[in-house]
Amino acid sequence: MTDITPLVPRQQVPDLTVPLAGGGTWRLADQSPDNFTLVVVYRGLHCPICKGYLADLNRKVADFAERGVTVVALSSDDQDRAETAKDEWRLDQLRLGYGLDLETARRWGLYISTSRGTTSLGIEEPALFVEPGLFLIRPDGTLYFGSVQTMPFARPNFADILKALDFVLANDYPARGEVVTVPAEAAE
Prior knowledge:
5-stranded mixed beta sheet, alpha/beta, two-stranded antiparallel sheet
């Protein structure tokens, strides 16, 4: 399996293509937002925190669109689990991708977990699944912002991201964290 390598702001992100619950295919390369594409990676149908998190995102899809941001949420779940999540969680505004393969997840710097059995929702965790991540991608395919997690807790708040986007867009604020190699004299 590919080693985890963090994505670097202002650099191209890896290719990303997933099928969508309800039909069709979502490709990052096909996106042409005015400002950003928001990619939200969730753990899957088994995750009670994901259910509330995506419900909040579903309510805010139009708010993101007003700021020139297209939105997709995706997981490594199979089609049946993704379709169930879309229907039972009432994600009527949110494009929901599934089938994120673990090699692609690793290229995106995401963490992979093993099953711990049945969750509080009464749903069995898959043998392997992706932990949460959130990425804002510029129209040119470069990373603007990224957050990856090893746990389902304390994810970036969508209301905070919307406020940050207002500031970013009003002030043409650049992507930060772009330094890959620290010069020796700066490390001392």
